Structure formats: structure tokens, C-alpha cells
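sry for the spam today, last one i promise. C-alpha cells for design, 118 residues
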């Protein structure tokens, strides 16, 4: 870890913000897992900050704007996320991929909510 990074880490700790920083990082990782679920199913695309450049982003945007097949495929994949158990299924995916299969197996994530179609 560089000197500037260490100084920042010490500054955060001195201010008593370490728990806030940890909570923020956990939420950031959670959001990234959700985004990756969308990417893996074809419902979204993700540009990695390290490798993204204006030409690559422009090419991706042009493809989305000009190719109706690509848009239709993405629209169809996104529509598959919109069903009554989507949130539960997404939570199970995240918990399993994070190494918490026992939490993913909780009854509240398995049972069909009353009154909803299968």
C-alpha cells in the first residue's frame, strides 16, 4: 500500500469513519454483484473502468443504437428479470456467489409468496 493510501486509511480511522467506509464498500460490492448478474444474463453491458476508452464506449453505444437485434436481445433478457420472484432469485444468486449457501437456502427465499402465480 502506498504512503498516500496509508495516510488516507489512517485519516479515516482517526475520524472514526472506518465503520462507515466498510459499510460503503460492502454496499458497493453488493451493487457490483447485482450488475454482474444482469451482465451475465445479457440484460446489460458493463465497461471496466481500467480498460474503457472513448473509442470502445462509442463503439458499444453505436452497436446498441444501430443494431435492433442487439437491442431486442437485451430487452428480452431484461424482461426475464421482471417476474414475481425476481428479487428472491437475485438475492439467492448473490448469497451463493458470495459463499453463503446456508443463507440462500433460507425458507423466505424458497417459498412462493401467497397469491402469486408460479
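last one done:
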Amino acid at each position: 500500500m502506498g504512503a498516500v493510501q496509508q495516510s488516507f486509511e489512517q485519516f479515516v480511522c482517526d475520524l472514526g469513519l472506518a465503520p462507515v467506509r466498510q459499510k460503503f464498500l460492502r454496499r458497493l460490492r453488493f451493487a457490483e454483484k447485482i450488475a454482474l448478474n444482469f451482465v451475465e444474463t445479457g440484460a446489460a453491458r458493463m465497461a471496466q473502468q481500467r480498460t474503457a476508452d472513448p473509442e470502445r464506449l462509442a463503439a458499444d453505444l453505436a452497436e446498441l443504437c444501430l443494431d435492433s437485434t442487439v437491442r431486442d436481445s437485451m430487452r428480452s433478457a431484461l424482461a426475464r428479470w421482471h417476474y414475481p420472484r425476481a428479487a428472491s432469485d437475485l438475492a439467492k444468486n448473490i448469497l451463493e456467489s458470495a459463499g453463503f449457501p446456508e443463507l440462500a437456502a433460507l425458507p423466505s427465499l424458497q417459498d412462493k409468496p401467497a397469491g402469486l402465480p408460479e
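Confidence is low (pLDDT under 50) at residues 114-118. ok im logging off now
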